[in-house]
Amino acid sequence: MYDQFSTDPKVEEEGVWLQYEGFRVRVTYAGESNKKYTKVLEAKTRPFRRAIQNGSFSNDRSIQLLMEVFAEAVILDWNVEDFVDEQIGEIVWKKGIQAKDGSVVPFSKAEVLKALKALPALFLDIKGQAESIAIFRKDDLEEDSKNS
Asked: Could you tell me the pTM of the whole model?
């Protein structure tokens, strides 16, 4: 059971890269062990606690709040593919976020939030992975490093 559920606390804090076609996003664990995440989540939801408890807080507003929390406390970095270095056969990454017009804007919480709001399916994918211990498990990380 320990092999299945042990995570690497250092990796949880420093984050892991989620690879997508043409870009990547570095996330930290979105759970109780991430103190910044829990603090930001608490602060963002505090004004709405009564509405949340009595079930009158809308799902759309809930997702918007979570996007804000992720932009502030879970998404640590965002890169776009710049080019492939033929000599070493690896992708060279450029820090930033691709805008809808194809330009690359600087990485910031505001730009992350803008991207998440424009692409809610991307947010849900990032959220699902960041909330899963699977990508932060010690055995999986060791196996990934052997395969790369």
From this structure: 0.86
